[in-house]
Amino acid sequence: MKISRREFTEIGCKVIIGAVTGIVIIISLFKNNIAAANLNEENYDWNKHYWGFVVDSYKCIGCGRCAYACKLENHVPFDEPWYRTWVERYRIKKDGEINIDSPNGGVDGFNDDIPAEDIKKAFYVPKLCNH
Ligand code: SF4
Q: How many distinct structural domains can be found in the chain?
């Protein structure tokens, strides 16, 4: 089989790029495994990490799990109406009436107190503290 210098160079470049990419992926996986193995309560320093919570609000279904998790993680009392994260529901009825509610901050989800056929548009807005 005879190949030109150009073809040889192309194949060589592809092999080198593929090998470098593979090595980078393997090293990254190895580092993440070490980091995960070292993650326990005794040597975990909360001050060295910044966590964020990113939500595509168009996809929010109002399940309230973010509000629940926030209370749990941040020790916000469950028996008090205090929230760092809560979820609001906006419903625009066909007669033009606008209904906005957030029962218990959305922690327990939402009930269906307005018949679906009376609603023109509805959506949820998670209010995340990002602390
Ligand atoms: S309520 Fe919170 S957890 Fe549930 S879908 Fe919306 S943003 Fe996500």
A: 2
- Global pTM value: 0.62
In this structure, the answer to whether residues 13 and 77 fall within a common structural domain is no
Per-residue confidence (pLDDT) for residue 131, from 0 to 100: 59
Determine which of 1-5, 44-48, 67-71, 90-94 has the lowest per-residue pLDDT on average: 44-48
Is 69 near ligand 1, meaning CB less than 6 Å away?
Answer: no
Question: What's the CA-to-centroid distance between 86 and ligand 1, angstroms?
Answer: 9
Burial category of 124 from C-beta neighbours within 10 Å (exposed 0-12, middle 13-18, buried 19 and up): buried
Is the CB of residue 64 below 6 angstroms from any atom belonging to ligand 1?
yes
Same domain as 30, residue 2: yes
Q: What is the mean pLDDT of residues 19-23?
A: 90
61 and 1 housed in the same domain: no
**Between 8 and 40, residue with greater pLDDT:** 8
Distance CA 51, CA 34 (A): 20
105 lines ligand 1 (CB under 6 A): no
Is ligand 1 within 6 A of the CB of residue 126?
yes
Ligand 1 atom 6: the closest Cα is on which residue?
A: 60
Whether 32 and 57 share a structural domain: no
Instruction: Give the tokens for residue 32.
Output: 């993440």
